[in-house]
Write a structure and sequence with these properties.
306 residues, alpha/beta
């Protein structure tokens, strides 16, 4: 980027390096992106040592599908948001909440997901690449297995995907569960893989209550053709980033990346004007000046510098 040497430094390591950064006297501010467990540790430790901290953490992103939504656009959006990047992004769609008659679209959603091609990411026409490591694949498979064991209905199984030429690759295909409830691990944990859980409810109010009861508050989407429903939803939902007919509601960078509850600690976000404020230390100066003549009163001045 052309910045002078020493301005940007990349430091590799685990907990020891993280703790050193959180406690070092020369570091004034820390911005974190990662899991809720690690983010909470960073926030607490760095805060104890007088640092300014913003911590963007875990997610369990929902999308609410109303029966009046544009079906084709909605289903295409769900498939892309749930399975793009093999589900390995903090804004991936994890849970589809089907309201009323939109539950009739589930089988069409499954059929669209079946068409996705799993392959190495650099191969032409690949829709789903590998997950990042063998450990990540094992974790995703363990969660899929737990969903089966806890009684969810496995509509599309991506556990046994074989990719010719990459037989040892860390591949997991598109996986869809229905009949999911909030006590299941596949609902409670961030899977970080190409797995979509479906929950069916009767009303918008039920959908809002379900999402607001989740520990995470990173992102949420709503698909509807009703402005009244959209206004009600965006006012009542307790989530940092809300998309209306948008499945991944990340704002462009001059707005702020936001979150609530278990998805964010700290008051300022890492995008836009909030980021500038976060990395700015305010200095307040109060001064008093006197004229050389003793007969003239003093002049008081207060200024703030950033």
């Amino acid at each position: 980027a052309g910045v002078p040497a020493g301005v940007l430094n990349v430091v590799h390591g685990g907990k020891e390096v993280v703790d050193r950064l959180c406690t070092h006297k020369d570091i004034k501010a820390i911005s974190f992106v990662g899991s809720t467990a690690v983010g909470t540790h960073v926030y607490n430790l760095a805060g104890q040592h007088g640092k300014r901290v913003q911590s963007m953490m875990g997610a369990k992103n929902h999308v609410v599908v109303m029966p009046d939504a544009n079906k084709e656009q909605t289903l295409n959006a769900l498939v892309g948001a749930a399975f793009g990047a093999a589900g390995q992004r903090c804004m991936a769609l994890s849970v589809a909440v089907m309201v009323g008659d939109s539950k009739k679209w589930i089988q069409e959603l499954v059929e669209k997901a079946k068409t996705l091609k799993v392959n190495a990411g650099h191969e032409p026409n690949t829709d789903i690449g590998p997950v990042i490591s063998k450990r990540a694949k094992a974790r995703v498979l363990d969660l899929i297995n737990s969903g089966v064991e806890q009684g969810a209905e496995l509509l599309l199984d991506g556990r046994d995907v074989q990719v010719q030429g990459y037989e040892s690759g860390n591949f997991v295909g598109a996986t869809i569960f229905s009949g999911v409830n909030t006590d299941m691990r596949i609902y409670k944990e961030e899977i970080f893989g190409p797995v979509l859980s479906i929950i069916c409810v009767d009303t918008l109010d039920e959908a809002i209550a379900l999402i607001n009861a989740n520990p995470f508050g990173n992102g949420v989407g709503l698909f509807t053709q009703s402005g009244a429903i959209a206004r009600t939803f965006q006012n009542l939902i307790d989530i940092g980033q809300v998309g209306i007919n948008i499945p991944i509601p990340v704002p462009v960078p001059f707005f702020s990346f936001t979150g609530s509850r278990g998805s964010k600690l700290g008051d300022l976000g890492p995008y836009g004007k909030q980021a500038v404020q976060f990395y700015t230390q305010t200095k307040t100066i109060t001064s008093r000046w006197f004229e050389d003549s003793h007969e003239v009163g003093g002049v008081n001045t207060t200024i703030s510098l950033r």
